[in-house]
Amino acid sequence: MNTMIRKCTKTDIQELQAISRQTFVETFGTQNTPEDLQHYLQEAFHIKNVEKEWTNPNSVFYFIYIYEKLAGYLKLNQDEAQTESYGTETMEVERIYVLKEFKGKGSGKKLLEKAEEVAHQQNKNKIWLGVWEHNDKAIEFYKKRGYQKIDEHIFQLGEDKQTDFIFMKKLKIDEGGTA
Questions:
Q1: pLDDT tens-digit profile of 115-171?
Q2: How many Å apart are CA 24 and CA 129, to the nearest integer?
Q3: Hey, CA dihedral for 48, 112, 168, 7, is it positive or negative?
C-alpha cells in the first residue's frame, strides 16, 4: 500500500480541523446524542483551539496519506501537554483517527508505529493513550500491540461523562540505554 506520513505544518490547520471533526463524527456519532456531539465538536475542534494545540511546543500532529489521499491523523503530547501525568519518561497518543473509508487498511497501525518511533526519538520509555470503554475494536487493537490497561479517567463529551481506559506500553530500550 502506498502510504506516507508527514508532520503537520501551520498551513494544515484548517484541514486538520476538518479531518478532526469528520473522523470524530464517523467514529462516535452514532453512539452519542447529537447535542453532546455538537457541543464537543464546537469546543474541541474550534479553529482557535486547533491553532492553540498546534502551537504547543509539546504537541505534534501527523497526517497519513494513502495513495496521496488524506486518510487520518495522529496527535502526540509530551511533558505538560499530556492530559494526565505519568511522568517525564512518557508520551501520550492523544488522538489517532482514521477516516471510515481507510479503516482496516493498516493506517491505524502505521500511525501507532509512528507514535512509538517519535517516542523513541524523544527518549521516552513509555507510551500511553486513552480509549473509550465501549470501543471494543480499539481496545483489542491496542492489546494486540502490547498495550496494557493501567488506569482510567473521565472524558467529558458534552453533558456525558464517559470512561476512558488508559493503556500503556513500555518501549524497548536499546543497549545504549536509550528508548
A1: 999 999 999 999 999 999 999 999 999 999 999 999 999 999 999 999 999 999 999
A2: 16
A3: negative
- Cell triple for residue 114? 509512528
Cell of 17: 480541523
Catalytically annotated residue among 40, 62, 97, 142: 142
The fold adopted by the segment(s) 3-170 is: Aminopeptidase (3.40.630)
Q: For residues 113 and 10, give the distance between their C-alpha atoms in angstroms, rounded to a whole number.
A: 24
Catalytic residue list contains 147? no
Radius of gyration of the chain, Cα coordinates, nearest whole angstrom: 16
> Half-sphere exposure of residue 24, counting CA atoms within 13 Å on the CB side?
22
Q: What is the pTM of this model?
A: 0.92
| DSSP string covering 11-28 | GGHHHHHHHHHHHHHHHH
